[in-house]
Design goal:
By secondary structure, the chain is of the alpha/beta class. The chain has eleven helices and ten strands. The chain binds NADP nicotinamide-adenine-dinucleotide phosphate.
Length: 321
Amino acid sequence: MSAETRTSTPFTARTTAAEILDGVDLTGRRMIVTGGASGIGAEAVRALAGAGAEVTVATRNPAAADGLVAEFAGAGSGVVRAAALDLADLTSVNAFVAAWEGPLHALVANAGIMAIPTRQLTPQGWELQLGTNYLGHFALARGLHDSLRAAGSARVVIVSSGAHLREAFDFDDPQFERQPYDPWSAYGRSKTADVLLAVGIARRWAADGIVANALNPGYINTNLQRHMDEETLRSFGVLDEAGNRIDLEYYKTPAQGAATTVLLAASPLVDGVTGRYFSDNQEVEVVVGGPEATGGVAVHATDPATADRLWAYAERALTSR
Ligand SMILES: NC(=O)c1ccc[n+]([C@@H]2O[C@H](COP(=O)([O-])OP(=O)(O)OC[C@H]3O[C@@H](n4cnc5c(N)ncnc54)[C@H](OP(=O)(O)O)[C@@H]3O)[C@@H](O)[C@H]2O)c1
């Protein structure tokens, strides 16, 4: 994508989610945020409901959203509800989809896990990071397609990561069945698959009024890092001598980390934009991925033919279990 055709906004890396939606009225808009009970997901929920939306927090543990639900009860702005969803379990995804009624204006695929130390499997036998971060969201989006179409104009937002830059999707061994499992490769590949999911939706559902974009939220200190051991955290420079977490200067607050998510979910500034990738509230350039890549979006995550191949892989995976 050349610089002239990339979407830009007046916002910066430090803009908060609430600032993105300043003056935007989302009354009557129905939205789902997966993993919306914690971290940047919770801040996205807060901003979207604060602008008037009716937001469903899709979470493994609905009680974890009690605080958010209470925050908006009778507040005169939006509404927050919670519903059970385990993205790692297709049975749970199907139950969530079956229970959803009416139109859906935005699906925010935010939930994720990172760097699970050993290879674990979902109930359907998929490697856990791919199963949760990608296949679960694929099944959810596909299951909610009719509700998104019924909205007339709907957005799908996929929260990916800069970690996608280093890892192309491995069609030969997507589940780490033959090669040794690597926690970071598995995370990176699942996040590449997430970007390709946005491209795949953009290619298929445009005629239904549905757009889809992916994003990198930046670095934010959240529960996501809970599977990293002390040695890894030290190598990242985020532990002090006493073993306490420290935020590096480029770290964002959760409210800043949620900004690009809500930009893509609800800002009129990106009306009609689809199949793109944003970071720090700007569409970024397409780059060659690999270990040296530090910014932008990798061509291995935006290539339309790869997106179609992955879509076909995911459809087969879903029907085979
Ligand atoms: N923080 C960063 O620096 C950073 C950087 C790049 C990308 N991201 C991405 O940002 C997204 C949000 O992460 P975060 O930093 O806000 O971390 P977080 O607080 O750990 O949020 C992740 C959410 O995903 C949920 N989740 C995990 N497994 C799930 C499952 N099987 N079914 C349903 N929900 C599940 C978690 O719920 P539970 O409480 O049930 O575990 C949690 O609410 C993730 O996709 C992550 O990859 C974050």
